[in-house]
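During the reporting period the student researcher (J.K.) took over the structure-prediction task from the postdoctoral fellow and processed the backlog of single-chain submissions. One of the processed entries is reproduced below for the supervisory committee.
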Amino acid sequence: MDFKSINPTNNQVIASFPTLNKAEIDLSIDNADKAFHSWRNIEASKKKLLLVALSAEIISNTKEFASIITKEMGKPIHESMAEVKKCADLCLFYSANFEKYLLPKTLNEKAIVQYEPLGVIFGIMPWNFPFWQVFRFVIPTILAGNTVIIKHAPNTPQCAISIANLFIKVGFPNAVCQSIFIAVDQVESIIQHHKIHGVSLTGSTIAGRSVASIAGKFLKKCVLELGGNDAFIVTKNANIEKAVEKAVLARCRNNGQSCVAAKRFIIEEEVYDSFKTKLIIAVDKLKIGEPTIEGNTNGPLARTDLFEKVLSQIQVLKEKNFNLIHQLYQETSMSNVIAPAIWEGNEIIDEEIFAPIFLLYRANNLNEMIDMANQSDYGLGTSVWTNDADEIKILSHQVQSGMLYINELVYSDPALPFGGIKNSGTGKELGEDGIKEFTNSKLIFTK
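J.K. obtained the following structure tokens:
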């Protein structure tokens, strides 16, 4: 199986790359293991200099990298630019904070815990944020002293190549960060390899279960950032104008292809009609067009198979008696386009829809809103909109999710731990929690 860059606007193949054979994979793992034994002892000051250089190189090539992202998976160009710049910011954040995050923790006069690297960590990365997801895995993992091997998504190979070249260009030692092209059926052999000491996957729940099963079988540390069916809760005490403004961003950024995109909009009865009316007006301000052109907010989905899956999910909505109350009607000659649309219904849909599809639900009171939000096998992030302190307290304690954002959409930030519960995954990325995931929290006791 080749890794192929395919322009999602017209399904034309841009470039293709062959996968590695077993001997080539083993060589990559051996090189990463050799690099680990020296990299783990590199002084913090040198790591800082490398991170600062990496950040500067990212910024100086922002337009080039953003163009690659947009051409490979269809993200609007202004969002691709923001994604690249966010990677540069992450490098600077960790350069300023990683030392204090990894300081030994004193328990008492006899005991401390120190954080030591595990070795070579295998990262399985997604296509929807092909730079950001890689950097938020790689940077904290290597700063902890590990080395990494990355399997990127098959439809973003040029992003993978660009990232790997970046690390070499700014002076990181060879094999600290490698990107390899492998098929799905080669994943298990890599995870079980005796020189691989952990695996991190960002992807679907199905993929997460498979990787977790393999990792469990071979007793490898595993971090999973999986799908979401996030609730966007709006109570009668919310600022409706602000909630609507953020709702459009929360559902439509990256053409709706985000694990933390708001997907179920649960609106209290008293403000339901007002929210719906304002949402229709806001959706009509979006603009479908070539993602390479500034000003266009929505383009194609990343692949034809993803487009076809969403069409089948829309058919399910019809079968479950959801009503299409509004859709953005703008003609386009591009392939794989799902226009932003607003549906309303009663039955909780617990399958993640990776497209700009709003599902609106009417709720009678706060308790009903909480029950509806928790009617999901997912639990990634929840956005809550209310200015009532008592409601905030109740929602904060009773909504089941790994993250809860109050009067803000759910997003990732280098300083904040990111991760979900239930079918949305295990473990954390980013912040202090993320940098410690692939470390040995070693107890040192002195008599």
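The committee noted the following: Residues 77-101 form the longest helix (25 residues).
J.K. will present the remaining backlog at the next meeting.
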